[in-house]
Amino acid sequence: MHLGSLYTAVASFLDARAHGGRWLLRIEDLDRPREVEGSADGILRTLQAFGFEWDGEIVRQRDRTQLYVDALQTLEARNLTFQCSCSRLQLEDESRYPGTCRVRPAASTVPTATRLRVEQGSILFHDRIQGSYRQDLAAAVGDVILKRRDRIFAYLLAVVVDDAAQEVTHVVRGADLLDNTPRQIYLQGLLGLPLPAYAHVPVLTEPDDTKLAKSRRSVRADADSALPQLVAVFSMLGLAPPDSLAAASLTEAWAWAIGRWNIEKVPKRLRRPTRARSPMSEPRVIKKYPNRRLYDTVESRYITLADVRRLVVERIEFVVVDKKNNADITRSILLQVIAEQEHLAEPILSQDFMVNVIRAYGTSVQGLVSGHLEQSLKQIMSQQPQSRPPRIRTAADDSFKALSAIRSRDGDKDRDEHVDTK
Question: Taking the alpha carbons of 316, 321, 327, 330 in that order, is the dihedral positive or negative?
């Protein structure tokens, strides 16, 4: 359990207790293959060490499969679902599900997922912290998955069913789930379930907007420092704890915070302080997931290499990081972008594009651009002149100029640089 999780848990606990409500604890453990043995017990021990007290029995989603089966069958009986054979790889360049299998699965010999038919129309709700939020669900995400190809029920279906079954009236959680809420509201409407009041606390982030929980500088919730960390979280929630609270007991600290809780004081955004560059000058962070999809944290959507090219053309500074290990892989992604230009109807192996790449990423990428560009030009120019359309000749001419500019600026030092194009 890390500081961001503690922050969210404290906010939900304070909101429940300040209004005389119950605080329910649910272990969301549907994805058994990815479950780390003992992690749930570790979270419970940490919560107890920080003085949390929950009401009623702990609910584990893995024990509630029949509830999800019943809900899915209700939707299927009304023809609100369909089977989809599309894999993640097939959809990796799509910003939303395009409806490929709405009529019938595109492939009949592979496992299928169950998707919910999402019709056009906007979902609008008021968040107690973030304010009004509107989303055209069909345009933003398309038909959503309720049961995966590996037969595991999706979080979307489970959380909607469980909230209703547990009679949850108020939900306080992280803002990383804000854009997931409209699809939950849509599903609640189809199942005739009550709508809880939602409040999404800000996700604790680094200055570049990456989630602190996924950062190498992530802070763990330490049971041996429960009171100091708790007081720090109170401060981040806008409660302004006095210095004297540092000498209080956990019970006294909780009582102080419950008596002063005001959700209107919770900020909409929250960043880890930095003494380095201003957050406004930090480059945009794009994450690369194991399934090869790129996710833009600013636009909050999956993007394609064409989108990356647009960022370069518009001179928007960005970095691409591997989500698994936070490694900077911008160079390799740029190589893919450059390689892609050879196959476009209007290739842009042009001086302007290459100059923009160099302007955005400096000398560290010049060798990459120079090496691959020369390789591409040789391939283009090896064709017979009569087989090269005018646009190809123009692109090649521009590219030779770009290559000359790179070489003259960079000298001979990058000529022997090896670039792995695999």
Answer: negative
How many residues are there in the chain?
422
For residue 379, the SS3 value is: helix
CA dihedral 291, 293, 294, 297 (to 10 degrees): -80
Specify which residues 99 forms β-bridges with.
none
Q: Which structure tokens are listed for 162? A: 């469980």
| Packed helices 351-361 and 366-381: angle between N→C axes, nearest 10 degrees | 160
Radius of gyration of the chain (CA): 26
Report the DSSP pairing between strands 294-296 and 81-84. unpaired
What are the structure tokens assigned to 1, written together?
């359990």
Per-residue pLDDT tens digits of the chain, which is 422 residues long: 888 889 999 999 999 999 999 999 999 888 877 777 788 888 999 999 999 999 999 999 999 999 999 999 999 999 999 999 998 888 888 888 999 999 888 777 889 999 999 999 999 999 999 999 999 999 999 999 999 998 999 999 999 999 999 999 999 999 989 999 999 999 999 999 999 999 999 987 765 555 655 444 456 788 888 898 899 899 999 998 988 898 899 999 999 999 999 999 999 887 554 433 333 345 678 888 777 788 887 666 778 877 787 777 666 777 888 887 888 787 777 767 766 655 544 444 455 555 555 555 554 555 545 554 555 555 555 555 555 555 555 555 555 565 555 455 444 333 333 223 22
Backbone angles phi, psi at 82, to 5 degrees: -155, 160
Task: Give the SS3 label for residue 283.
Answer: coil
pTM to 2 decimal places: 0.64
Per-residue tokens: 6: 């503690």
